[in-house]
Amino acid sequence: MVIRDKMLEKLTQAFAPDFIELVDESEKHKGHANYIEGKSTHFHLTISSPLLSPLSRVARHRAIMDALGEEFANGLHALRIEVIDKHAC
């Protein structure tokens, strides 16, 4: 299973999102630090989940990063996070 699929699976299990999009942006970082030819190291996540809504921006990011701890330990370098809050009061 490729890293993107693993990440989507973990995020879906952790947050039951009603919207999720994960885009590999690694090629945009060619020549930058931590770019590895042929490896997915940089992603952009857009997610909407009722489980993230009550959390602060920092807590949301921490929860997402915690859910992907194994991926960060194994070469994921950067994750740009955008939370769409459809569930705010």
How would you describe the overall organization of this protein?
The chain is α+β, with helices and mostly antiparallel strands. The chain has one domain (3-83): 2-Layer Sandwich (GMP Synthetase, Chain A, domain 3). It has helices spanning 3-15, 57-67, 69-73, and strands spanning 19-24, 42-48, 78-83. Strands 1-2-3 form a 3-stranded mixed beta sheet, covered by helices on one side. It is elongated. The model has no long low-confidence stretch (mean pLDDT 88).
CATH level 1 name: Alpha Beta
Average of per-residue pLDDT values: 88
How many domains, as an integer? 1
Task: State the end-to-end distance.
Answer: 38 Å
Radius of gyration of CA atoms, rounded to a whole number: 13 Å
Number of helices: 3
Number of DSSP-assigned strands: 3
**Structural shape:** elongated
Summary?
With 89 residues, the chain is an alpha+beta fold. It has helices at 3-15, 57-67, 69-73, and strands spanning 19-24, 42-48, 78-83.
Overview features:
single chain, 89 residues, alpha+beta, GMP Synthetase, Chain A, domain 3, 3-stranded mixed β-sheet, 3 helices, 3 strands, 21% strand
